[in-house]
Structure formats: C-alpha cells, structure tokens
Amino acid sequence: MYSFWNKVNLYGKWRLIHPRYVLRSFKGHLQPSGLTENDSSVTDDPDLQQTQYVSTFNEFWFLSDPALFIHNCYPDNPENQMLPAVKRIRNPRQFMKLPYLTPVFHEFNLKMTSEETCIVDTIDGLAKISFKANRKIAKSMMCDFSLSLDERLGTDASPFDFDSANLVFSSRKKNQFMFEVRCPVEANYLISISGGDIESKSKKVLIRSKIVCKERISDVRTLPIDAGQIGWGFGPVATKAGLSKPKIREPKLFIQPKSARGGRKTTIKMRFSIDKEAVKRKEYQAEICADGKPIDRSKDYVKTNIKSGELQVDCSVPSDGEYALVIKAKDRKEPEFNPICNYLLTTLENEEKVCDEYFDSSDGTSDIDEEISQLQNTIQALTAERDRLKQEMLGQ
Question: Where are the domains of the chain?
Fold first, then answer.
C-alpha cells in the first residue's frame, strides 16, 4: 500500500512528519459515558444524541524518530530513511520482515529482546516473543494477547480443539515480558500482544506477529489455568494488593513431586513483604490448580502464613505434570478472594533449562535494577515525609 509523508527542514535539520496519521478524526455519538465511536456498518440512530466528529493529534507521527518511523513507512529513495547507511533497510523484502510494532509500543519506550521479525519460526513447536520496558513503565504495565489459527500446514487434518488462551505462557520477570507460544498443530498462527497501565480500562495493541510452525510440539499440553491479564510472575496486581520484594522472581519454577526421592526439591518456599496498611486490611490465601480448577485436597499442598510483615507460601505438587500456584487476596470486608499473582510449577523440565529461559542483566533483569528500584522508592518515601514535616512546621 502506498502512502505519502513529508520531510521538513527545521533549524538546519531534516525531520519526518506524516500528516495523515498526525491528525485523525472519528465519528461518534455523545453518550452520558462519553463519546462512542461508530461502527462503519451502522447507520446513524436518531434516538441517540447528536453525532459529533472528534479530531486527535498523534505526536508519534510528528517529528518522528527515523529509527522508529522505518517500522511503518518505507521510502522509495533510501536516502529518505534518514538513517546511517549501515542501519538502512536494503530492500522491500527486508522491510516486510520487520516486526510490526505499533506507535503505542514506541510511546511506552519498549524494546524488543527477541528476534526482530514479524514472522517467527518455531523451534520444537515453541515460539517466543519478548520485549522489555524501563523500570517505571514495567511497574504498572499489564499485557494481554490473542492467538488465532490462520492456515493449516502439511497433511495433518486433526481438529484444533484447544483453548488458545491456555497455549501462551504470558510471563514477566522484573521489566522483561515474554510470550511463549505452544503450537499443537503444524500451521500458521497470528498473535496480537496488547498492553497498558494497570488502571486503564482497555489495552492497546503493541505487537502483531505471524508464527510459522512446521513441526508441532511433541508433547502437547495446555497450561493449567487461563492466567488472563495478570499473566505469570510477580506484577502490578500483586503490588496493588500490598505485596513487594518477592524472594523468587522466576514465573516458571521446577519442582519434584512429593513422592520423589533422592533429596530433590519437593517444596518451594515463596516469600513476599507486605505493606503495613495491607497487613491490617488484607487477607491472603493460595491454591494449587490444574485443568482450570483447584486440585483435590489443594490445602494439603500449599500453606500460607503471615509472620513479621511477610507473606509465606510453601507449596508442593502431588505428581508429575504442570500446576499453577495461584496467590489470592481480598479486603477483610469482601466476601471473595481474587487472584493477584500466578506461578507455573513444572516437574517436566530440568531446572537448568527453566533458569536459562530468561535474559541476563543486559536486558534489565539484574539484581542491581531491583536495588536501584528499592532506593528510588526509599528516596520517594523520605521526600514525602520531609514535605509533610515541613508543612507541619509552617503550620505552627
């Protein structure tokens, strides 16, 4: 598809502007809850309030960074990429293979850490897409995804009767986000990853990719639960519920079943600090789940305790397989517990492989990042206390 944009010279430097995308407008009806965008196939309803047109200004397309602009627009003249020669896209074929990253991806200042391509080939039936955020963004970011079957490959015509929500291990470790897709049939798949702040009502698309699986995963198994937007690993929902400083950061943990012998690890001990206010008003519990529900006698395999401002969760599993450790919380006045954090417990992979699946400190997941984050929180708290004392002194 052809598109046109402008190159303008400001103070002796050439910059990029895409007028069509900078200013956009949409039609909608003014409702008590706000403006509702119309579906193009729906005619105006006279019973609704007056139709209005609203224009928006998208800063991403105004004086854009050429390194980001090239992900969306490929000029006929290579010079107009405005990139150093070594970083230029050489031909349309290379351009078409670039990852589809939306302006929202760049607005959040996210960085790809997996292969930068829009077509992801599986290895042993697994595909992985990952990116990282800075510490401030990661603290409040939640992600979601949709996975669909696009086109069957090969001669396998077996029915696709899998819940796609249980085929994607959507996990986080500190400020690293990973989506591991299990492909049960040889086919092309489409995945769309969205994200946004924990307080936002809807998530916006960040990445779209095509997954090509020419050899399906040998041991097809779905995840024990649909983790939803909470995903797997410690995240902002747990923080909002009063937890912090998890002793274990990995979202996927290797464990031996209780029946195992030989001194192998059969119990995992999770520890979290609890905010002082949360200790007073929150209750916590945990359960072991499989097949979308708590296992029989779940309480025999998980124990929770609060001691010295710390939530202690000791868990084990009854037999070989994959299980979800679901940590829940509620206000003392509320009737029901709600999930705030999920961990995948597996007996099916060796511990070394599980630990190697995440990236090192170059991707922002080192312990020094956690120490910096804790220092920033301490400085913020001390600054607030200083300001409070200052106000008290001025009021006397």
Answer: 6-94, 99-154+162-222, 228-358
Determine the distance from the C-alpha atom of residue 285 to the mean position of all C-alpha atoms in its chain, rounded to a whole number: 24
DSSP string, 191-238: EEEEEEETT-SS-EEEEEEEEEESS--SS----SS--GGG-BBS-HHH
Enumerate the β-bridge partners of residue 67: none
CATH number attached to the domain at 228-358: 2.60.40.10
Instruction: Determine the Cα–Cα distance for residues 81 and 76; give it in Å rounded to an integer.
Output: 9
CA–CA dist 378, 380 (Å, integer): 5
- Residue 277: how many CB atoms within 10 A of its CB? 9
Q: In the chain, what's the furthest Cα-to-Cα distance?
A: 83
Neighbours of 228 (CB within 10 A): 13
Are 271 and 212 a contacting pair, CB within 8 Å? no
Topology match between the domains 99-154+162-222 and 228-358: yes
Output the six-digit token pair for 114: 């997996």
Sheet architecture: strand order including 62-64:
6-10, 13-17, 62-64
Q: What does CATH list as the number for 99-154+162-222?
A: 2.60.40.10
pTM exceeding 0.90: no
Q: How far is CA 113 from CA 56, 99, 209, in A?
A: 32, 12, 14
Cα 154 to the chain's mean position, in Å?
32
User: pLDDT of the chain along its 396 residues, tens only?
Assistant: 677 888 888 888 889 888 888 877 666 665 555 555 554 433 445 555 566 667 777 788 888 888 888 888 888 888 888 888 888 888 888 888 888 998 889 889 899 999 889 999 999 899 999 999 988 899 999 999 999 998 888 766 777 788 899 999 999 998 899 999 999 999 999 999 999 999 887 889 999 999 999 988 887 889 999 999 999 999 999 999 999 999 998 999 998 886 665 555 689 999 999 998 888 899 999 999 999 999 998 889 999 999 989 999 999 999 999 999 999 999 998 999 999 999 999 998 765 555 555 444 444 444 555 566 667 778 888 888 888 888 888 876
Beta-strand pair 119-121/168-173: unpaired
CA–CA distance, 83 with 78 (Å, rounded to integer): 9
Gap between the Cα atoms of 316 and 303, Å rounded: 9
